[in-house]
Amino acid sequence: AEKCAKLIKDSGLREYECGGLQCNSKRWVVLHMFDPFVSDADVTTFLRRYAEVRVGPVVLSDTRTVWTGKRQYLVELRRGDNSTPDGFTHPPATFSIGGGRGYLYYWDQPEFCRKCRAFGHREGACDAEKCRKCNRSWHNTRNCPVKECSLCGESGHLFRQCEKRGKDMDRAIE
Questions:
Q1: Could you write out the DSSP letters of every residue in 9-78?
Q2: Residue 12: pLDDT band by 50, 70, 90 thresholds?
Q3: Cβ–Cβ contacts within 10 Å for residue 39, how many?
Q4: Which of 41, 128, 153, 165 could form a disulfide with 116 if both were Cys (CB 3.0 to 4.6 A apart)?
């Protein structure tokens, strides 16, 4: 690895990055928001809850250069989630930011259940009888009385009151 890094640094390969083929944590994520008024900064802040954003957003257009509602990001998945076979923390395949709904997809994405919001199965095979958010059994995740911000994931406020709203938190620090 050191020999490869030295070769890249000393030669004309400075613009390239050397990455492994096995257990690679980098993914190109395509994220589709149905609400065109959800800002790039809010979408990026949401995505940073689950992964390190390396590049993006790149706006994806159709053949007539009309925006499709899709953004593309290069992200690096975080290690530490034992509920997935690869050990990475994956962003949810379907989500909401405020009133805007969206979904995302990428290579080697694990199966995701829209009913219980867990990985490893689809909603047709789901037998969940308790809420995934608060682990109580008298309601499902959609009707959970525990309210949390859909942007930053913290309790105590909702999207409209979020102080991170409209700010790209990583770029604000730099």
A1: HHSTTTT-----SSS--EEEEEEEES-TTS-HHHHHHHHTTTEEEEEEEEEEE-TTS-EEEEEEEEEEEE
A2: low
A3: 15
A4: 128
Tell me how long the chain is: 174
As a whole number of angstroms, the distance between CA 52 and CA 48 comes to: 6
Contact 86, 22 (CB under 8 A): no
Check whether the bond before 57 is cis (ω within 30° of 0).
Answer: yes
**pTM for this entry:** 0.67
d(CA 46, CA 102): 11
End-to-end Cα distance, the chain: 30
3-state helix, strand, coil in the chain (%, to 5): 20, 30, 55
Residue 174 — very low, low, confident or very high, per pLDDT cuts 50/70/90?
A: very low
Give me 66's structure tokens: 């009309």
Of 83, 93, 87, 97, which Cα lies nearest the Cα of 31? 93
User: What number of other Cβ atoms are within 10 A of residue 7's Cβ?
Assistant: 11
Instruction: Determine the residue type at 7.
Output: L
